[in-house]
Amino acid sequence: MALRARALYDFRSENPGEISLREHEVLSLCSEQDIEGWLEGVNSRGERGLFPASYVQPAGQQPPPEPFPPPPAGYPFPPYGGSYQPSQGSDDDWDDDWDDSSTVADEPGALGSSYPDYEAAGGGASGRYRLSTRSEPSLGPRGAGHPPGHPHPPGGGGAAKSSATVSRNLNRFSTFVKSGGEAFVLGEASGFVKDGDKLCVVLGPRGPEWQENPYPFQCSIEDPTKQTKFKGMKSYIAYKLVPSHTGQQVHRRYKHFDWLYGRLAEKFPVISVPHLPEKQATGRFEEDFISKRRKGLAWWMDHMCSHPVLAQCDAFQHFLTCPSTDEKAWKQGKRKAEKDEMVGANFFLTISVPTGPGASLDLQEVESQVDGFKAFTKKMDESALQLNHTANEFARKQVTGFKKEYQKVGHSFKCLSQAFELDQQAFSAGLNQAIAFTAEAYDAIGDLFADQPRQDLDPVMDLLALYQGHLANFPDIIHVQKGALTKVKESKRHVEEGKMELQKAEGIQERCNIISFATLAEINHFHKIRVRDFKSQMQHFLQQQILFFQKVTQKLEEALHKYDSV
Question: Which residues of this UniProt protein bind a 1,2-diacyl-sn-glycero-3-phospho-(1D-myo-inositol-4,5-bisphosphate) (predicted)?
Answer without folding.
Answer: 253, 255, 293
